[in-house]
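Protocol step 4 of 6.
Sequence for HNH nuclease domain-containing protein (marine sediment metagenome) entered exactly as in the expression construct, tag removed. Do not edit the line below.
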Amino acid sequence: MQTKKCTKCGKVKPLDAFSVHSASKDGKQSRCRVCRNAAKCKWRAANREKLREYNRKYRIDNSEKCGESVRKWRVDNPKKAGEYSRKYRLAHPKRVRETGRKCRAAHLEERRKYEAERLKNNPQARLRGHIRSRLYQAVKNGQKVGSAVRDLDCSMSYLQAHLEALWKPGMTWENYGRHKGMRCWEIDHIIPLSSFDLTDREQFLAVVHFSNLQPLWSDENKRKGAKNGG
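Step 5 output, structure tokens:
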């Protein structure tokens, strides 16, 4: 078995205890791995700020490479990645919130476009958002006693089919909502929200029930206002 003496600790060790160094005659480092690691740890402890600044600059200059490396590690180590993220969030809650805020602000327009496209291709998501929004505007500072979606008494897919069955000629999901240059339709409460006491559970259930919803052209809905209509 080939051996070598470490120039740091003076111990004679097997060659595999030394790292590779192509410039040396025997192809190995002069110090053993244990001594080299100890020296590295000591240097890092004494130069934390310098090392932190170096790493920060490296990540900026090599953002794509670092990002891909992190993504690959997360894919290959899902459990470790999840545990690391959990511990980091617990240890740095303010930093996590601030990072999230900056990220959302930086990608605001991108998120808006994504959300608009998602809603465009998902009628049920649009219905859910519209129903919640209408109820929120009606209640304002009042105390509602239920959920506009959970208390529909039907699934979103059933509500979609229910509205489609009541469509008037020309109504499609493409002209649902507000679009410039075309006649659009909206979801209308047949008996208006303003006719009910939304803090009363029974009245709340009656007004949000799917049978109280109908598709109505926007111009007709404006003329109807707060009047009952079927």
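Step 6, annotate. Residues 118-224 form one domain.
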